[in-house]
Design brief:
mainly beta; seven-stranded mixed sheet
């Protein structure tokens, strides 16, 4: 069986400067070297995708992942974070990437987050 992760966010909407918090759940366990959460700003078009900014949590766990494990994470959304944007030719958005570094292809579970441009008072 292959390693499967799920990302649960603590909020539906974030603003620049907010902490992005949540939990990574292990749905199907397996071998892993490390587990971490990444907050990424993605540029995407029909034939291109690139991570423009990446903020890493550092290791949340090292070693084997067992079904049912869960790990809390907190990542700081930059104070100058741009909002999500979608247009005819592409989109820009923030996502949380739960990444298990393992032999061969790494396991990922990505969850897009909503970022609003309004500053907090």
């Amino acid at each position: 069986m292959s390693l499967q992760l799920a990302v649960r966010l603590d909020a539906e909407l974030y603003r620049p400067g907010d902490p992005v918090t949540g939990t990574i759940e292990v749905r199907e366990g397996g071998s892993s070297r490390t587990l971490e959460a990444l907050l990424e700003y993605v540029e995407e078009t029909e034939d291109y995708s690139s991570v423009a900014t990446s903020i890493a949590s550092g290791p949340l766990h090292t070693g084997e992942l067992t079904t049912g494990m869960s790990f809390a994470f907190a990542l700081a959304l930059p104070a100058d974070a741009l909002p999500n944007f979608g247009g005819r030719h592409g989109k820009l958005y923030w996502q949380v990437d739960a990444k298990a570094d393992k032999r061969g292809r790494d396991a990922h579970e990505r969850c897009q987050i909503r970022v609003d441009s309004a500053q907090r008072p």
